[in-house]
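Supplementary Text 2. Reproducibility record for the structural model of the 309-residue chain.

All settings were left at their defaults, and a single model was retained for analysis rather than an ensemble. We include the record here because the model underlies the residue-level annotations in Supplementary Table 4.
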Amino acid sequence: MIAILGSGFGLYGYLPSLVEGCGISVVLPEKSRARYLERPELARFADEIEWEANESKALDHANGAVIALRPDDQAHWIPLCLQRSNLECLLLEKPLASSPGAAADLCRELSRSKKIIRMGYTFRYTSWGEQLGKSLGKATKDDSVSIQWNFLAHHFRHDQSNWKRSTASGGGALRFYGIQLIAFLAYLGYRDIHSSCTYGASPDQVEKWMASLTGEGLPDCRLEVDSKATSDSFRVYLSGIVLVDLNDPFANEKSDGLDRRVPVLTRVCQTLWEPSVSESNWYAETIELWRRIEDKTLCEIRPTFTEAL
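Retained model, structure tokens:
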């Protein structure tokens, strides 16, 4: 049984991935009940849910845990979960912490724990991710890769002031959204950074991130993540040829009324029962690449529409 801490993506993402995708029952703290009842698409999983008074009680009755909380809250719960001998595995959300340095410290703790650890880095498990990996196997240094991801983030669409807007809290175009691409490219072998620039109303309000990455024997890769775009698109080019043309990275997934990320997240969860799979090196390389990117990132301040007037 897996305990889920977090009443957002923990419920509408991890809960169906574990119950329907992996055949695993879950235990939830009572504080999550109201949010669960607000999600009618989750009603069909009711028989596979146990409820406990609080997070600690839920963890007592589990042999694994999902921590799908804000990065700072996740950083609080991880050491507590590592101390629990009954917890054999942890499923953690991205970013691991609010900064590369804090994430590196946690990554070392996780590696030392000898528990089974999985991170919510999902791009590797998409069909387009597999396609790009195969294409790069045939590419040369003379080729080039471009990934363009444009969307209007929920907090911008609904004018919400929450942690996902704040770089210091682990949010923004680079730390919250861009980390998915960083993890995927680290998996493919990218290790260094040519250039990186963020754009926003302030260094803590990053709306857009552009970068150029390199890897031994790999084509240079140019990234563009715009979380305040006027239209949605996700495109991947190899030497100018379109490899992927979607509305978003998960547009091809069939989710049966659930969040479109659930099928891909299910593939991540299923690796928990593959004992030969160890992702610790990949996770460490992801955080190191993230650190190198941030060390080289310049920030360009763009006035808001109101300020421009």
